[in-house]
Amino acid sequence: MSTESVQGGGNDPAIEVTPEAAEEALSLLEGEELDTDEAGLRLFVQQGGCAGLSYGMRFDTEPEPDDLVVEHHGLRVFVDPASRNYIGGSKLDYESGLQAAGFHVENPNVVSECGCGESFRT
């Protein structure tokens, strides 16, 4: 069952979260003993990498007043105003496999990525 609510977003395109990503993030949040009703995953963009920008993620106990707050499958995702311009409309997924496992952002705003896939340019 997919639930979505958006707060503070205005006309910004929301962030989508797959069930796999929500399940993994919620498990990690609970492992950190954070209240999943208030805490969430902060998704942001920072300067860095060979293409200029890179994604960052961390857990926060609550959103900042001007954050976009999106909830999918019980996971709250917080996005600051500066990052919204770069990642609005993106999808957060979790992939696991023999070679690697981790969160992956599918971003429709990206015009190029570096060879290793760790940074991007819009």
From TrEMBL:
Top-level taxon: Archaea
Q: Which PROSITE patterns match?
A: HESB
Q: Which SUPFAM superfamilies match?
A: HesB-like domain
- The Core domain is annotated at 15-118
For biological process, the GO terms are:
iron-sulfur cluster assembly
Any one Pfam family here would be Fe-S_biosyn
Q: Which GO terms describe its molecular function?
A: 2 iron, 2 sulfur cluster binding; 4 iron, 4 sulfur cluster binding; iron ion binding
Q: What is this protein called?
A: Iron-sulfur cluster assembly protein
Q: Which organism is it from?
A: Halorubrum aquaticum
